[in-house]
Every structure is written in structure tokens, then in C-alpha cells.
Automatic annotation (TrEMBL):
The chain crosses the membrane at residues 6-25, 75-95, 116-134, 146-167, 179-200, 246-268, 280-300, 415-443, 464-481, 487-512, 519-540, 552-573. Belongs to the sodium:solute symporter (SSF) (TC 2.A.21) family. GO terms for molecular function: symporter activity. It holds the Pfam family SSF. This is Cation acetate symporter. Its main location: membrane. It is a multi-pass membrane protein.
């Protein structure tokens, strides 16, 4: 059976499963639309939470990122997993006991302010749209390669699928769909990881792959270090980022994870407060199955890429002899070759293969003299001297293709390649659906019902939620077609914004009974504006990395925003009247251990 047919069967079969679940679990009330009726078992909720959180960034982009940046990628592993410890211990059970299932709802009721609620709605929407842009981009990448359509068309197909089961099923449909998607994505990531580990190291566990000894007698890490140095890169085990930037990025990702609105709402789909904590434990286990395999997959992919492109002697490979995977991804517009010295040999090394000032290669419908796909921004270098620069780079590789291309590079069976494609789509769509539901809930429940028109009926609120989801899907599709960066980079920005704007407000609302409305509003505004402003300037506004504050990159600046948020909120709270005695008693009661029983709304 051909690879194309296998891919259609795997992706088509998974789509049929998701849509079938959405029809079976169709939401008939606002409670089912928002929190799945509150009756999901903890283990199923743990799977759904893991799928909701393990997005295209985790499945598609994280291993690719670590493949290219080496040690610096450890911040993503530590931050994204450590955040679940914070969430399970410090936030989830208390928010569940408080009984408000959205971040704006908690903020509005805890601080007794419509203004605070509206600011929290804005924070939620900014975080969710930033996050969802990466998911739709991931869907487009998968479809562009495996369904032989351009990325933009792939994004539109993904929008149509999400529209169906998110708008129809709501949280009830999404929850059970995400249980299925977790099963698909974890198999799709770990099965090829086992194959790759066995092929390269001789044993099946990718978790121990980086330390395994190869036929050369060196470990995978030592081999990567040697290959990287030979080709002009820095050592794989050394990093370019400063220690302070790594630290601030890790903290931003960790606290951002604990403050993500679409993850927090998951703890309201279980019956009891105790189940909310249990959900966090299950989710961490399910996430660890993938995350502990990521470093090995990243290392295997990097070794395979270098050896496949540069050949066994590390001298390059004639384009005519390049394997089919290289040309497949070239045709998908995610890999390109620029024959800078005109010798017809593909050479991969450090440096930009194309004019960096013009950005990523823009592919055109022309072929070069060797049959390679041409780009409009090819960098011709008349002064190129092969004797002095034997390994000047000629290959552009999109970071987001590494996990998807790994099985093809390693020549794994066709069904494994098709499984990876289905898993990548599941990862992207599961998170996209959860984010879109959060956006629609923020608009229909927190804005329309709680702020603008409290008298609307349950049926009208459900209609507004579905209309908001439709609009959100269209906007998400636009960002997927016009992304601000590669998937993991875009997602990291969303975590930074959550870290600076939402996380401190929740923490102070739970653990500091003196925190009042004025402090919460001031803190959220300072955290949101400072972090978004910094990110916008350095990502979109042309800011130079040499001008980073204390050397902190945009992804890590969320930690600075969080510190500013805490300082401003606490200072303003001390200078203004305290909250009511009733609210202070509620906050005290919130932390009493007896809340491990059935939750009570206040």
C-alpha cells in the first residue's frame, strides 16, 4: 500500500473518529458546553488535559527545536513539565473549590469588579490567540506534506474540522475527542521513537538514547558534539543563551503553564475537588511519556539529518542522489537547497543558505538546473571559494519538520510515517479546540452573560458561545496562514503572557486575603502591557537582540512581567482599602483542607 493511501487512511480514520465522538457527545446545555457537565472521570480528564496541553509545539516543534539549539532547549522541557507541578499543587484544587470555571469568572468574583473581569477577558483572549496561531500553523505543515496541498489550504482544512467538533460538541465533545487524540498522538510519537532508538543505538528506549554508544564507539551526545564542531556549529551540549535568559525562560514557561486558561478550565470537568488534584497527577504522567522521549528523538533526528545530507564521508551529496524525503519536503516548501558554488552537491553546515534579510525562502514554480525547487530570495555568492569554505551552508531546514521527517529519513515503514502524520494533526487540533472554546467562553459567559447582559437565557448564551467560536476559528486561521514565527517560538510567547498577566492574579487571589480590586487591576495591566510591548518590539518591531533587557529574550520576559505584576499589585493593595471581610473569610476558607470533599460554590 502506498504511503499516500496509508496517510489518507490514518488521517481520515482519525477525523471520522473525532467527528463521531463530537456527534455522540453533543452539548445540549451551557454546563455541558463549558465544563462537560462536570462528570468526567479523573483518568479520562488526565488524558484530555494532556492532549489539550501537548500541542503542535510539543509534538511537532519541541524535538525540532532541541535538534537545532541543543542544550538551550532544556528550558522548554523543564518549564513545560514543571508548570504542571505548580498547577496541581498551588492552583487547581483551590480554583475548583472556589467554583468559577473560567479565569475571568474567578477574577471578577474574587475581586468583585467588572473592570477586573474585562481585563482578565482581554488577557485570556490575547493568550489564547497567540497560542492557537502555532496550532493552526502545525496543521498546515502536516497537510502540506502529506495531503500534497499548500500550507494555507492545510490551515483551512484544519479550521473546518475544528469548527465541526468544537462548535457542535463544546467541552463535552472536546473532552472525549481529546481522550482519543491523546491515544493517537502518544502512539504516533513513541512508536517511531522506539524504532529510531533501536536503529541507532540498538535498544528500544529513547529515554536513554543520548547516552547510548554508537558503532563508532562514541555516545550520541559526543557524536553530535563532534559533527556540530566539524560543520561550524557550536557544540550540541553547549548553549548560546546566557544563564539568566535560560532561567527566566524556564520560569516563564513554568508559571505560564500554571496560568493557561484552557488548562485551568479542565479541572472543572471532574466531579470533586479531590478529582481535580488527581487529574493533575494523571496529566503529568501522560505528558512525561512524551517529554522524556523528546531529547532522544531530537538527537537521533539531528544525527540522521547531517549524515543523510552530507553523506557517510561528510563531504556532501549530489542533489541527483538525494533520497526521496529531501525532495518531498522541498516540494512541501519546508526545506530548500541553494547551490551556492554551482557544483550540484548539497552541503549542510553552519550559516544561512539564503539571504537572511529577506527571511524564509519564498518558493516559486521554477526548477534549477539540477531539478531543485527554486526560491525568489536565493543568495548567489560570486566570491564563494570552495577551498576556503568547504562547508558553507546550502540547506534551509524548517525546524518544525524534524519530528515529521524523522521516520522518512530513517526509512521506517510507511504505516509509521502515516501514524506520525495522524498524531501531529491530533496534537494540533486538540489544543486548538480547547483554546477556541476558552475564547468563546470568555466572550459569551464572562463578557455577554456576566457583564453586558446578565438577563440572556441559557439558550441565548449557548448561541453566543457558538458564534464566538466561529469568529475565533476564522481569526485563528488567519494567524495560522500568517504566523509570527515557528510553532514552539509562537507558543512560548503565549506562555510568557500568561505568566505575566494571569498567574500572579490567581496566586494572590488564593493565598493573600488582603489583595484587593485595585491591586489586581494594576498588576494585570502592568504585567500584560510590559510583556506584550517587549515581545512586540523585539519580535515584530525590528528590535535588535543586542538591546535585550539584561540579555533576556522575548520568551523569557514574561518572568520580568510577572515580577513587575507582583510588586505593583502588592504596593497598590497596601495603599488602598482592603477587600470586604466576607471576601477575606472566603479566601481563608478556600485553603482549608476539608475542601478535599465535594466542592461548594460561594
Amino acid at each position: 500500500m502506498s504511503l499516500d493511501l496509508l496517510t489518507y487512511l490514518f488521517i481520515g480514520g482519525s477525523f471520522a473518529l473525532y467527528i463521531g465522538i463530537a456527534i455522540w457527545a453533543r452539548a445540549g446545555s451551557t454546563k455541558e458546553f463549558y465544563v462537560a457537565g462536570g462528570g468526567v472521570p479523573p483518568i479520562a480528564n488526565g488524558m484530555a488535559t494532556a492532549a489539550d496541553w501537548m500541542s503542535a509545539a510539543s509534538f511537532i516543534s519541541l524535538a525540532g527545536l532541541i535538534s537545532f539549539v541543543g542544550r538551550d532547549g532544556s528550558a522548554y522541557l523543564m518549564g513545560w513539565t514543571g508548570g504542571y507541578v505548580l498547577l496541581a499543587l498551588l492552583l487547581a484544587p483551590y480554583l475548583r473549590k472556589f467554583g468559577k470555571f473560567t479565569v475571568p469568572d474567578f477574577v471578577g468574583d474574587r475581586y468583585g469588579s467588572s473592570t477586573a473581569r474585562i481585563i482578565a477577558v482581554v488577557c485570556t483572549i490575547v493568550i489564547s490567540f497567540t497560542y492557537v496561531a502555532g496550532q493552526m500553523r502545525g496543521v498546515g505543515i502536516v497537510f502540506s506534506r502529506y495531503l500534497h496541498v499548500d500550507i494555507n489550504t492545510g490551515v483551512i482544512v484544519g479550521m473546518a474540522i475544528v469548527f465541526f467538533y468544537a462548535v457542535l460538541g463544546g467541552m463535552k465533545g472536546i473532552t472525549y475527542t481529546q481522550v482519543a487524540q491523546y491515544c493517537v498522538l502518544i502512539l504516533a510519537f513513541t512508536v517511531p521513537a522506539f524504532f529510531l532508538s533501536a536503529q541507532i543505538t540498538g535498544h528500544f528506549l529513547p529515554q536513554f538514547g543520548l547516552g547510548a554508544t554508537l558503532e563508532s564507539g562514541q555516545s550520541v551526545l559526543a557524536t553530535l558534539d563532534q559533527l556540530s564542531v566539524d560543520l561550524g556549529f557550536s557544540q550540541y551540549t553547549s548553549g548560546k543563551k546566557s544563564t539568566i535568559d535560560i532561567f527566566f525562560l524556564t520560569v516563564a514557561l513554568m508559571c505560564g503553564t500554571a496560568g493557561l486558561p484552557h488548562v485551568i478550565v479542565r479541572f472543572f470537568t471532574v466531579p470533586r475537588v479531590k478529582d481535580a488534584r488527581t487529574t493533575g497527577g494523571y496529566a503529568l504522567i501522560f505528558i512525561a511519556l512524551l517529554y522524556t522521549a523528546v531529547p532522544g528523538v531530537a538527537g537521533f533526528g539531528r544525527v540522521n539529518l547531517i549524515q543523510e545530507v552530507n553523506g557517510p564521508q561528510n563531504t556532501g551529496t549530489a542533489y541527483a542522489e538525494m533520497p526521496s524525503w529531501f525532495k518531498n519536503w522541498e516540494n512541501a516548501g519546508l526545506l530548500a537547497w541553494n547551490d551556492r558554488n554551482g557544483d550540484g552537491i548539497v552541503q549542510y553546515a553552519a550559516g544561512a543558505a539564503f539571504d537572511a534579510k529577506k527571511g524564509k525562502p519564498a518558493f516559486i514554480d521554477e526548477r534549477g538546473e539540477h531539478g531543485q525547487r527554486m526560491t525568489s530570495n536565493a543568495k548567489t555568492d560570486a566570491s564563494f571559494d570552495a577551498a576556503k569554505q568547504p562547508f558553507a551552508n546550502e540547506v534551509y531546514v524548517d525546524r518544525d519538520i524534524m519530528v515529521l521527517a524523522n521516520p522518512e529519513i530513517a526509512q521506517l515503514p510507511g504505516w509509521v510515517i502515516a501514524l506520525v502524520a495522524a498524531g501531529a494533526v491530533a496534537a494540533a487540533l486538540s489544543t486548538a479546540a480547547g483554546l477556541l472554546l476558552v475564547i468563546s467562553t470568555a466572550i459569551s459567559h464572562d463578557l455577554m452573560k456576566k457583564t453586558i447582559n446578565p438577563n440572556i437565557s441559557d439558550k441565548q448564551e449557548l448561541m453566543y458561545a457558538r458564534l464566538a467560536a466561529v469568529v475565533a476559528i476564522c481569526i485563528a486561521g488567519y494567524f495560522g496562514i500568517n504566523p509570527p514565527g515557528f510553532v514552539a517560538q509562537v507558543v512560548a510567547l503565549a506562555f510568557g503572557i500568561a505568566c505575566a498577566s494571569v498567574f500572579p492574579t490567581l496566586m494572590l487571589g488564593i493565598f493573600y486575603k488582603r489583595m484587593n480590586t485595585q491591586g489586581a487591576i494594576a498588576g494585570m495591566l502592568v504585567g500584560l502591557v510590559s510583556t506584550v510591548g517587549y515581545m512586540w518590539y523585539f519580535v515584530f518591531g525590528g528590535g535588535n537582540s543586542a538591546d535585550y533587557f539584561m540579555g533576556i529574550s522575548p520568551g523569557g520576559f514574561g518572568t520580568v512581567g510577572m515580577i513587575l505584576h507582583f510588586i505593583v499589585a502588592l504596593v497598590v493593595a497596601q495603599m488602598t482599602p482592603p477587600p470586604s471581610e466576607e471576601m477575606q473569610r472566603i479566601v481563608e476558607d478556600l485553603r482549608i483542607p476539608r475542601g478535599a470533599g465535594v466542592a461548594h460554590d460561594h
